[in-house]
Amino acid sequence: MNCPKCGSLMRWREGHGRFGPFLGCPAYPACDIIHNAFGFSDQPTRNARKRAHAAFDRLWKPSRRTRGYLYKILAIYMGLPQSKCHIEGFGIEQCERVLAFAQEYAPKEQAT
């Protein structure tokens, strides 16, 4: 498989990724494309996913709401089937929608 950005032949990277093995462009760091179970992504997309995950995690970690419950709500909000609602498979625009969702559904601070 060739890199969609620079055309180099992608190389198998065993066990180095957050989600296990992946194909990485040998021209890294000049070319930052990887291909894992969620498809191709570049560094800006991965950064957007990290921001979206951080915002989403703040919704369920300090509360009684479960992660699974919030993913169901997020799927409805995003207009996606629940099976396709996984932040690691989202593009930058979808991550921006996750940030909007997180802001809208964030637990409100109680007035003192």
Protein model, in words:
The chain folds into two domains: 11-41, no CATH class; 44-105. It has three helices and four strands. The protein has helices at residues 43-60, 67-78, 92-105; strands at 11-17, 20-24, 34-36, 39-41. Strand 3 and strand 4 (39-41) form a beta hairpin. The model has no long low-confidence stretch (mean pLDDT 85).
Overview in brief:
The protein has 112 residues and is α+β, with helices and mostly antiparallel strands. The protein has helices at 43-60, 67-78, 92-105, and strands spanning 11-17, 20-24, 34-36, 39-41.
* Secondary-structure content class: alpha+beta
**Low-confidence stretches at least 5 residues in length (pLDDT < 50)?**
none
Q: Percent of residues in helical segments?
A: 25-40%
Instruction: Give helix and strand order, one letter per element, not per position.
Output: EEEEHHH
Total domain units: 2
Major sheet details: 4 strands, antiparallel
Number of strands: 4
Beginning-to-end CA distance, first to last residue: 58 Å
Q: What is the radius of gyration?
A: 17 Å
Strands of the widest sheet, in order across it, are 1-2-3-4
- What do the pLDDT scores average to? 85
Shape descriptor: elongated
